[in-house]
Amino acid sequence: MKELQRILSESGCSLVVRDTEGNVSLHWKKGVRDLIWLLDNDPGRLKGSEIADKVIGKAAAALAVVGGVKRLYAAVLSERAIPFLDASGIGYTFGELVPKIVIPEGDDRCPLEEIVLDAATPSEAEALLREHFREMQERSQNTK
Fold first, then answer.
1. Which class does domain 2-142 fall in?
2. Average pLDDT over residues 29-43
3. Are the CB atoms for 13 and 28 separated by under 8 Å?
């Protein structure tokens, strides 16, 4: 895990994944978009993997559980993520534990953490996130 933490820190990426075969991949998208992409396009990479992420809130934790991640490191971990991680048996370490994820522009709760706030299960959180992204895509297409 130390190697993944080093890569995360030195590369400037947002997510590092080491699959069960030892292959390491770096991902750069904001928020949980890389986790969603991996679930949709390369789910085998997540199953049994170790990941290092800059920020793990409840939303990212839910997607890690759904993807079958085995272990993770979060530079910043939200206390709201811990119940999903503990219930699934994902091992985790972190640099900083915070009560909630805040957006860089201010002190409001992260929009993704807000979306999944009331989700009781990782699958429910995933469905809420997918609906949110679908609505965003539709709005974007309607404004073109």
1. alpha beta
2. 95
3. yes
